[in-house]
Design a protein that fits this description.
The chain has about 270 residues and is α/β, with parallel strands linked by helices. The chain has one domain: 3-Layer(aba) Sandwich (Rossmann fold), CATH 3.40.50.1820. Helix content is about 40%, strand content about 20%. The chain contains 11 helices and 8 strands. It has an 8-stranded mixed β-sheet, sandwiched between helices. The longest helix is centred in the last third of the chain and has 17 residues. It is globular and about 60 Å long. The model has no long low-confidence stretch (mean pLDDT about 95).
Length: about 270
């Protein structure tokens, strides 16, 4: 396998950005007997998972706290893990354009730099907490681009999240990011509205809806109820939803099995 710690200049963010990229390969036992031409085939292209971190974390989180490398190696999936600070993976009203960065620039950079598939069937997006919201925000806004979306303890309903965050003294600048938390409903930053809109978009394009994996912890004080409700709602809209609850809170003890099961799900398709 290859693990690349990358830094490149982002036109969208107007600064250098950090990205971890994992690219699978044959294991070292196979490498002992395989010829170099087989190890480095120019036609080789891997499915790609764009994996988003949560709030107060960074692009190293998945590598530090989960076994995503071993899961990706098993399923021969490349993983692109960008840094998004606390920007909620959207174009901020006053701030950085993280939606454009992920949806336009990051994909162009990754697919031109690494041996990645460029078709919908070989492209997935997932994330935890803030990143779970981000994965839905990107995947549902562009259902023609992703075959599957993984939302792990995703902060689906931002309005109901505000008070619990304030109770633990975590203040999110909703005004700068979204123009105020009350202004989200009905817009493309509203995951429920976006899920309904994606159904119409896929119908018009003659596409199947992207598969959804929605996971959460049974003791999660922030998102348990909202993820349960979203799983039911998405299934009612016609999405193929795999919903999982694991013992635990808003922690890696839940997210590590989530990423393992998400990769198992996409490998089955």
């Amino acid at each position: 396998m290859s693990l690349c710690r990358c830094k490149f200049y982002s036109k969208c963010l107007q600064s250098y950005v950090d990205v971890n990229v994992y690219v699978p390969s044959v294991n070292f036992f196979e490498a002992l007997s395989a010829p170099l031409e087989e190890l480095y085939r120019p036609e080789q292209r891997y499915p790609a998972l764009y994996l988003l971190h949560g709030m107060m974390d960074d692009y190293d989180g998945w590598l530090r706290f989960s076994n995503v490398e071993s899961y990706a190696e098993k399923h021969q999936v490349a993983v692109i893990m960008p840094d998004g600070q606390n920007g909620y993976w959207v174009n901020a009203k006053r701030g950085l354009t993280y939606f454009d960065f992920v949806e336009r620039e990051l994909r162009l950079w990754a697919e031109s730099t690494f041996p990645l598939r460029r078709d919908r069937g070989g492209r997935f997006i997932a994330g935890l907490s803030m990143g779970g919201y981000g994965a839905l925000r990107h995947g549902l806004a562009n259902p023609e681009s992703y075959a599957a979306i993984g939302c792990f303890s995703g902060t689906v309903d931002l309005l109901s999240l505000d008070k619990p965050l304030r109770d633990i003294n975590l203040i999110v600048d909703w005004d700068s990011i979204f123009g105020g938390i009350d202004s989200i409903e009905g817009t493309d930053n509203d995951i429920h509205a976006l899920a309904r809109k994606a159904v119409d978009s896929c119908h018009e394009m003659g596409l199947e809806l992207p598969r959804l994996y929605v996971g959460t912890g049974t003791e999660d004080p922030f998102v348990l109820e909202m993820t349960r409700s979203f799983g039911v709602e998405a299934a009612g809209l016609g999405y193929d939803v795999r919903y999982e609850e694991k013992p635990g809170g808003h922690l890696w003890e839940v997210w590590d099995p989530n990423i393992r099961e998400f990769l198992e799900m996409v490998d089955e398709s």
